[in-house]
Amino acid sequence: MKGMLLTWLPESLFALVLVGVGFALILGVISRQRAFGIVGSLVLFLLISPFIYALFDKLPVWMILAVFVVVILSAFRAILGFCFGKGSTDQFVGQVMFAAFSMPFRLLGRLFQRTRRF
How far is CA 91 from its chain centroid? Predict the structure, then answer.
């Protein structure tokens, strides 16, 4: 979740995030471990972002669309997890995946189903 939030921030706000994490650490709002996690994620994202941009420049359009769909679905799952909790979200995602994977087989079964005549 933290990494996904960092991708939506413009690079000019990264300095403000660092200052905010520092103030939160000084005031005792967040723990030292959480502050180092946020700062580490920020630094890692800054180091990896040029490679990600170069990779996306070389990808074909259909693969970029596939990545976009995955990002949208993971954002939807994160929102569901925030609203309903981890257990409920896992149950919902499991049921949706089962329905999605079993749908082609159900359609094939209905296609080849014998019609009953009374």
Answer: 17
Q: How many domains does the chain have?
A: 2
The 10s digit of each residue's pLDDT in 66-109 is: 988 988 988 888 888 888 988 999 999 999 999 999 999 999 88
Q: Are residues 19 and 45 in the same domain?
A: yes
Same structural domain, 50 and 16? yes
Q: Tell me which of 37, 58, 79 is where a domain ends.
A: 58
Residue 68 backbone dihedrals phi, psi, to 5 degrees = -65, -40
Q: What is the DSSP letter of 21?
A: H
Give the whole-angstrom CA distance, residue 100 versus residue 43. 38
Question: Residue 68 belongs to what domain range?
Answer: 60-118
Read off the pTM. 0.55
